[in-house]
Amino acid sequence: MRETVPGADAYVLSTWLFLRLLGVVYLVAFVSLDRQILGLVGSRGILPVRELLARRGRRVLPLFLGWPTLAWWASSDRALRAMTRGGAALSILLVAGAAPIPVLALLWFLHLSLVHACGEFLHYQWDVLLLEA
């Protein structure tokens, strides 16, 4: 016989709603960043991500472990756009309820990658709060 936690059913609706709303917040974050990313850290942006990474060093694996971002391997304008648009697509999957645990892990990692790649532009309170959520 399986033990049940008293009141466990009460968390089903709140969990369902929380995940959908978190997906909407991620969607807003990725779509708004998609509109700005090339002007901020693109190849002709204010602070190009390639220059930011070059100042950090050349040994990718140790640097990735201390400062994780996919930009170590791909920092072209196309790659930056792929990260923001991929995040938006994953956000839609989360809102739809498709595979929430792997989707949440990928969303978190993509957003972390962009926070590190965008440097000063994404080191504000709400970007860090979204990573913590």
Secondary structure layout plus pairing:
Layout: H1 10-41, H2 49-56, H3 60-66, H4 77-96, H5 100-117, H6 125-132
Helix pairs in contact: 1-4, 1-5, 4-5, 5-6
What do the pLDDT scores average to? 82
Low-pLDDT runs of 5+ residues are: none
Task: Figure out the total of helices.
Answer: 6
* N-to-C CA distance: 35 Å
Query: Gyration radius, to the nearest Å?
Result: 17 Å
Number of strands: 0
Q: How would the global form be characterised? A: elongated
The portion of residues assigned to helices is 55-70%
What would your notes on this structure say?
The protein is an all-alpha fold and 133 residues long. The protein has 6 helices and no strands. It has helices spanning 10-41, 49-56, 60-66, 77-96, 100-117, 125-132. The longest helix has 32 residues, at 10-41. The chain is elongated. The N and C termini lie far apart (35 Å). The mean pLDDT is 82.
What distinguishing features does this structure have?
single chain, 133 residues
In short:
The chain has helices spanning 10-41, 49-56, 60-66, 77-96, 100-117, 125-132.
